[in-house]
Aspartokinase
Amino acid sequence: MALIVQKYGGTSVGTPERIKNVARRVAKFKAQGHQVVVAVSAMSGETNRLIALAKEIQSEPDPRELDVIVSTGEQVTIGLLAMALKEQGLKAKSYTGDQVKILTDSAFTKARIISIDEQNIRADLDNDCVVVVAGFQGVDEHGNITTLGRGGSDTTGVALAAALKADECQIYTDVDGVYTTDPRVVPEARRLKSITFEEMLEMASLGSKVLQIRSVEFAGKYKVKLRVLSSFLEEPGEGTLITFEEDNKMEQAIISGIAFNRDEAKITVIGVPDKPGIAYQILGPVSDANIDVDMIIQNVGTDGSTDFSFTVNRSEFTKAMDILKNQVQPHIGARNVVGDNKTAKVSVVGVGMRSHVGIASKMFRTLAEEGINLQMISTSEIKISVVIDEKYLELAVRVLHKAFDLDQEDA
Amino acid sequence: MALIVQKYGGTSVGTPERIKNVARRVAKFKAQGHQVVVAVSAMSGETNRLIALAKEIQSEPDPRELDVIVSTGEQVTIGLLAMALKEQGLKAKSYTGDQVKILTDSAFTKARIISIDEQNIRADLDNDCVVVVAGFQGVDEHGNITTLGRGGSDTTGVALAAALKADECQIYTDVDGVYTTDPRVVPEARRLKSITFEEMLEMASLGSKVLQIRSVEFAGKYKVKLRVLSSFLEEPGEGTLITFEEDNKMEQAIISGIAFNRDEAKITVIGVPDKPGIAYQILGPVSDANIDVDMIIQNVGTDGSTDFSFTVNRSEFTKAMDILKNQVQPHIGARNVVGDNKTAKVSVVGVGMRSHVGIASKMFRTLAEEGINLQMISTSEIKISVVIDEKYLELAVRVLHKAFDLDQEDA
């Protein structure tokens, strides 16, 4: 008997019929003697409908009240799924984030989980009950409803698995695993049987969109065994297992995949005085405004000043530019702030590159042969990322996928 | 400065535009220096949509899970209204029933309020904040979400007014007050400037549908000044005040109105042994099944047995019949159980009838002249009710409204 946490996304619970399918799948696991906790998203389209409704009232909805509204999406799903499980003859009980209680900080619309009280859930499980938990939501210390931000249901699933010390956290989604790159861009893309946490972290943060980055961090931190599976296949198969032990692989592939992110915007602060503390003075106000910064690059200055570049999500570009121009630039005495929100990021990812040389030069040569200019370059032990003009994105992904032989089964 | 509780029903908050109108109305009261608490229903149609969704999963939805789902309707409204109030430049904060906390019993889908913790609300009011509370919902001692049943938002409004010792509870609805009868049936129906609690109680319970009966009971019990107003008129006027002191009226009208209820079903237990405790043995199991019983009639038996009749809401007819036939009849040894769910109830209501004779005979004569047969008769100090074939309902209401001169301003 194992304790399994399953997470189903919006399309997996998008209609009453699909909710019944989820209930049937859960019933199979119960029949095998497992204990099951299910975390669910809102029915697909519901979150967007609620946000649109809020925007009819306020063009920039109050974050606290937006969370009150948006969190109802998952609340409807948990009730429906609990009913569907009862129809399968199972005991079932739904929990909102508040009811669990999933304690978060008070950063409305992008809260972070602080702790999960697993006592009531465990009592229900011991009572042979399937527990259905609303993903994406929690409650702060004052009892305010919070949401974890887009994709936060994955994090709920992993956090529940960690709190309950579950044997496995299964993320059911509309793809059957993690691919070497997006099959919509490269039809030859292959499903990976396993991928390391580090690679997954890079793949997710770089926009592979299979899993939300925070959920992978969480899984890594608490050593949660995480598996990505399809919720639409009758037999979901084995999906992609996310592993800790890279050396489990007999023969390590050099590169596991090509990740990319279309929603990238680049900002450069020009003529920054080259002295200690300047990075903090630039990024502090941006971070205070709850804007996530992705790539950060600073070149060594030659004339006592330097240029400082970083990327943010495109949706936060205007807000970030505003902070930099009006608060940061006058304060630190920079010469100018320039931005470009028509950029994209492409990365090659793989733990194998640690023991191989020449990956970077192969990547740069491949792109150069297509005439693609590199605006920013950033490297880590297991990935190399470049920022390019967004119009070359698909081309770049395709040629890199081929150059690194990712379409070959024995790559 | 007064403390006012306002309650807005589903049609009053049916669209974003109407929610903005509500916010403007609240802003007027704030501008006059009042403290305002607003209780709201779900946007019109929303509760039915959610129930329909639940029924796609379970034809008879699990009550606990149904409450989890249905309570989201009001939760969306409170968020939207709080936003609209902020757009008006006001401080505003939303509360779910759980957040308040509105403690109820655990009778899912028809819970009763046990207590309201008004401390946080009062702190917000003192901080110049408009408080927006989700109507219709609460939380039981175990933290389960409950709903108060249809129309329960009125009860929330009155209960909040009682807990906060508010100066007035204003129920905004789609009519501009309480009428002598339903204007859709009798166009000559007039708005009453005031009505006593006792009359209102009879009017509401008999199906006038302006206010939910429990809210009126609550208002009477806690001496809450209750006023019914239109939420659609630019200037809502004075509506109808519900008073305690019947002698406030200079000249008491004999009859205040004609109430009626279409959703009545009649059940008769035939050949009941005429001995003490039999009424409890019949109605106990019905009540245990949470079925509300309305009229109850028992004739004195002549041959050691008697017939026992009562009415229930038509939607619970099948369930009640089932209990009576399978549990009650064999247990008490009754001869038969018969039912009729094509009945309706018509009542004349008025505190004035206490000091007048001949009201009953006038009512019966009026109906007899139209050839309407009376299946059950029940009287109280301030009302006389009859159960008739439902096809005569409109006719009965019209002729009684005229017979008691309710269309005359000085009636």
Notes: The mean pLDDT of chain B is 89. Chain B touches chain A at residues 16, 19-20, 50, 53-54, 56-58, 61-62, 64-66, 68-69, 71-72, 75-76, 78-80, 82-84, 86-87, 93-94, 96, 98-99, 143-145 (CB under 8 Å).
